[in-house]
């Protein structure tokens, strides 16, 4: 354990400078095989430096986590490195056996074939591409910081928590207007937890369909990842195929 790892600075885990040094050191560590998030990662964007990610390209290693760790995932796929969207360490204590198995499978057999079945078809169609994404709020924040890169023909996965439908509409609209979704070949939507419809009755699902249908690409929802009861690990950067209500990995 590094000195100061249990420090606090308001809602942050200590000073930015210390966290930048620790992250940079972990990325450059020749013996480290993975960087696994303990908790959600508030302030992760404050700790990223473009130069540090050159080390990851030279010495690839797993980055594991979700939620605010989307920041690190996005930097990894920009560097051409796959990463694991998965429960943080504190979430594994109450994960189901199948979710723990998916966590291990992702690390040890990232190319293993498996399928997410019986998802809700929002927009029908078929597509194949590299799977990227994470938390929708963080994807928008990375776009604002000009750090978000969506590969051409990618399948974009996203989830979020405690965001009202009108805020999800705002985030998707901003990504659309910014041109970030123009190259996306399909969407896989995870949990949009605790998104409460207002007096108008429009739900998060309504917003997703309304905002993404015009792109003419397949959209499936209800995938087993996010801040809800199910958070199954999957590899970002993996090639996947979306067909009907199923997502094929491997």
Count the DSSP helices: 8
Q: According to CATH, what is the topology?
A: Glucose Oxidase, domain 1
End-to-end distance, in Å? 36 Å
Global structural class: alpha/beta
CATH class call: Alpha Beta
Describe the structure.
- The structure is a single chain.
- This protein is an alpha/beta fold.
- It has a single domain (16-249), classed as Glucose Oxidase, domain 1, CATH 3.50.30.60.
- Helices cover 30% and strands 23% of the residues.
- The protein has eight helices and twelve strands.
- It has helices at 16-28, 53-58, 70-78, 89-92, 97-108, 136-144, 165-177, 204-212, and strands spanning 34-36, 62-65, 83-85, 114-116, 120-123, 126-135, 155-161, 186-193, 219-221, 234-236, 239-243, 246-249.
- It has an eight-stranded mixed sheet. The protein has a four-stranded mixed sheet with strand order 1-2-3-10.
- Helix 8 (204-212) links the parallel strand 8 and strand 9 (219-221).
- Helix 6 runs parallel beside helix 7 and helix 7 (165-177) packs parallel to helix 8.
- The radius of gyration is 18 Å and the shape is globular.
- The termini are far apart.
In short:
This protein has 250 residues and is α/β, with parallel strands linked by helices.
């Amino acid at each position: 354990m590094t000195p100061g790892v249990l420090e606090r600075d308001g809602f942050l885990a200590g000073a930015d400078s210390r966290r930048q040094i620790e992250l940079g050191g972990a990325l450059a560590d020749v013996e480290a095989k993975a960087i696994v998030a303990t908790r959600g990662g508030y302030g992760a964007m404050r700790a990223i430096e473009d130069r540090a990610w050159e080390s990851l390209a030279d010495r690839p290693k797993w980055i594991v986590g979700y939620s605010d760790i989307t920041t690190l995932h996005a930097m990894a796929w920009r560097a051409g490195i796959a990463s694991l969207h998965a429960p943080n360490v504190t979430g594994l204590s109450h994960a189901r056996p199948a979710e723990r198995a998916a966590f291990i499978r992702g690390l040890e057999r990232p190319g293993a074939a498996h399928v997410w079945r019986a998802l809700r078809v929002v927009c029908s169609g078929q597509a194949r591409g590299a799977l990227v994404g994470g938390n929708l709020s963080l994807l928008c924040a990375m776009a604002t910081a000009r750090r978000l890169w969506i590969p051409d023909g990618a399948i974009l996965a996203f989830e979020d928590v405690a965001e009202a439908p009108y805020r999800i509409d705002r985030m998707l609209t901003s990504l659309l207007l910014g041109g970030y979704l123009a190259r996306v070949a399909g969407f896989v939507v995870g949990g949009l937890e605790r998104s409460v419809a207002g007096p108008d009755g429009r739900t998060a699902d309504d917003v997703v369909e309304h905002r993404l249908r015009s792109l003419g690409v397949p959209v499936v929802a209800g995938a087993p990842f996010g801040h809800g009861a199910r958070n199954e690990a999957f590899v970002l950067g993996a090639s996947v195929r979306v067909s009907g209500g199923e997502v094929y990995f491997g």
